[in-house]
Each structure stands twice: as structure tokens, then as C-alpha cells.
Amino acid sequence: MASTTSATSTRSADLWADVKPAAARRMLLAAVDAFAAEGYSAATTRDIAERAGMSPAAVYVHYRSKADLLYAISLVGSQSSLDAVTAALEEETDPVQRLRGYVSAFVAWHAHNHTLARVIQYELKALTPEHFDEVDALRRRRAGLLRSELRRGARAGAFQIDDQATTALAILSMGIDVARWYTRSPSPRVLGTRYADLAVRLVGAHG
């Protein structure tokens, strides 16, 4: 039997605060664990209900289908990661420090929320086309912010970049991959700083 889910150190309580009622939130958190552990295709609504400590029928009280659970999870996670990098950019004006802030926030988010991140990054293909488009719009906004920072830094002479699109893809890919291997250490903050250092070197900047 799957273990009953609970709020873990990898998930911030306020990330799910808008999911109501509490039973719906429990079901969503259980689905995160099930999809991350078993994959979307292999996980069943029975698995999810067991992790939530509820009956299989309870799933359908709050969500029409397993697909709707994945959609809700993907929206919450994608919006949260977008909010994290947006907030980081608002704190800086220098191009190098803005890049550092973006990368640090992006990586730290994927480390702190690594279970959720595995689901929203690696189960996208299971979304319906309509749901995928909505979630992908958030992802494209997030990627667009990074590309804008690279252009800004290059125009200011702070970055030496031959191919901005490939550089952005490399930075994003490094951050996303954190969700695949991260467990508990180093801390999300420390890991974010280390990846920010890598990004600064990647764009030929100093500081």
C-alpha cells in the first residue's frame, strides 16, 4: 500500500494555500507524490487516494479525472516558479546581478520543490493539448525573461555570448535537471548560488 502523504520539507505550505477545501489539497499533494514516484501513466486514482488516506471515490468529488489532477499540479508549479524568478529580477538592476538572481531563484525553486518539479517538468506530455498550451504559456514567459536578461546584458557589454538562444536553453536545462537528482543537500540556497556562479561564467561575465 502506498504511504499516506503529508506536507514534506520539499513543499512550501503557501504554495498550495489557494487549493480548497483541505480535502482537495490533500488529494493534489498525494497526486504529486504518486506521479513523481510512479510516473503519470502508471499511477492510478486508487494509488492517489491511498496516499491521501481517502477512498478512491473521493478523488472524483474534487477532480473529474487523473488528467485534471496533473493539470492543476502543473499550473500551480509553473506559476510558482515563474513568480520566483520574477521576484528575483525585481530586486536587482545590474545585468550580472539580475542574471545571478534569476538563476539562483530558478535553481533553488527546483531544489526546494524537487518532487513537484519532477512532475511538472517530466510529465508535460501527458497533458491534454489544451492544458499543455496553458501551462506552456507560463513556461515560455519564464524562459522569455531569461532571454531578455541575456539580451540586456549583451547590449550593455556585460555578457560575451555568441548564441543567446542556446545559452538560455543551457541555463534552463541545468536548472530543470536539479529536480531529477536533488534530495537534501546542498541546501537550495547554496545550490542556487553555485549554479548562478556557473551561469555568470557561461556568459563570459564577472561578479
From TrEMBL:
Residues 44-63 bind DNA. The keyword DNA-binding applies. Keywords: DNA-binding. GO terms for molecular function: DNA-binding transcription factor activity; transcription cis-regulatory region binding. Gene3D superfamilies: Tetracycline Repressor, domain 2. Residues 21-81 form the HTH tetR-type domain. The keyword DNA-binding applies. PROSITE patterns: HTH_TETR_2. SUPFAM superfamilies: Homeodomain-like, Tetracyclin repressor-like, C-terminal domain. It comes from the Bacteria. It comes from Conexibacter woesei (strain DSM 14684 / CCUG 47730 / CIP 108061 / JCM 11494 / NBRC 100937 / ID131577). This is Transcriptional regulator, TetR family. InterPro entries: Homeodomain-like_sf, HTH-type_TetR-like_transc_reg, HTH_TetR, KstR2_TetR_C, Tet_transcr_reg_TetR-rel_C_sf.
